[in-house]
Amino acid sequence: MNSPVEPDALIVILTGAGVSAESGLRTFRAADGLWEDHRIEDVATPEAFVRDSRLVQRFYNERRRQLRQVAPNAAHHALARLEREWSGEVLLVTQNVDDLHERAGSQNLIHMHGELLKARCLRCGQICAWETDILEDSQCPSCSRPSCLRPHIVWFGEMPLKLNRISAALARCSVFAAIGTSGNVYPAAGFVSMVAPGTQTIELNLDASMVSSAFRECIQGRATDAVPAWVERLLTPLG
Ligand code: APR
After folding, report:
1. CB of 201 closer than 6 A to ligand 1?
2. Is 18 near ligand 1, meaning CB less than 6 Å away?
3. Cα–Cα dist 78/61, whole Å
4. Active-site residues: which are they?
5. Which of ligand 1's atoms lies nearest the C-alpha of 27?
6. CB of residue 114 inside a 6 A radius of ligand 1
7. How confident is the model over 174-188, as pLDDT tens digits?
8. Per-residue pLDDT for 210 more than 60?
9. How many Å apart are CA 219 and CA 94, to the nearest integer?
10. CB under 8 Å to 222, separation ≥6 — which residues?
11. Closest protein CA for atom 4 of ligand 1
12. pLDDT greater than 90 at residue 37
């Protein structure tokens, strides 16, 4: 068991697809995961978009539509509660491209792999809110040119977003938690090794991840059980 955390401490939390699984969004690498039906190199690389933009847009259009049918679960709500009630700072870094953390109320949030509800213009570079399908002739709201929008998603081979801010937070945090992520994709899988010595590190996941051995503490279970219990533990003063 870890020692109590200083009340003004920074807590950094990394989330992955497992935190949204119980809301009804498929993870990537489960037996019934998204990468069982789709090859990464067909839908999630810049080369795939050049080769067959329709197929790539269809994949993300479907996923954008699904967001309307799901809602945040107890794990998202518990993390929003932690940010509201913790006396120090909480930074939530998510690999997820859904909007369930913000719908639950999290505000200090980085989407390091992009966001389904945004589009990026390949001509003017502007990133804009986008809630419907991106079609072949969709017009950029900023430069008004047609046929130049792509999903604001970080594909394999592209640089994740806000890495400088994330690295700085990892270097000064007192607690680092990873929730619902399999530890297959870097740099996120390496965050646990970027914290200062003495940092409390904890993994909350359904099963062991690829990087479990790098954490001081691992809790196995469903996010909707494990995360509210962990948040309660952090917010309950000892003695
Ligand atoms: N509660 C907690 N953990 C869960 C739950 C649950 N209800 N359901 C599944 N998990 C765990 C799985 O055991 C697995 O370890 O969540 C993890 C999900 O792993 P992945 O499917 O690999 O998703 P993630 O780690 O987020 O993927 C990272 O890979 O494909 C890319 O860009 C994509 O952001 C994604 C990145």
Report:
1. no
2. yes
3. 29
4. 113
5. 21
6. no
7. 999 999 999 999 999
8. yes
9. 19
10. 22, 206
11. 18
12. no
